UniProtKB/TrEMBL annotation:
It comes from Microbulbifer celer. NCBIfam families: phnA (TIGR00686). Belongs to the YjdM family. This is Zinc ribbon domain-containing protein YjdM. Signal peptide: none annotated. Residues 3-32 form the Protein YjdM N-terminal domain.
Amino acid sequence: MSELPNCPQCQSQYTYEDRDLFVCPECGHEWSGQETAEESSDGPVIKDANGNPLADGDSVTVIKDLKVKGSSLVVKVGTKVKNIRLVDGDHDIDCKIDGIGPMKLKSEFVKKA
């Protein structure tokens, strides 16, 4: 019998197969076997809003106005951010934005430039 992978979100061991997807009964997360192979090869893959994989040193463009917490500044749509660094956590992009300074962004609000 083949060993099923643990859930990538909650690490539950009680996953099961449903056609070509793996399903976690505890958190409801569904993923394909192909995603599991990509993640195990070199860690989790961080993707932009369009699903393109990101890497350290890439340039990205902001796709939504983002308010800077604790300030009246706003990062406008279309702002290009160069030389990003990927980090673990909720905000998975570390960067420096001209006119604002060092900042952390979520990958769901950027697209690869």
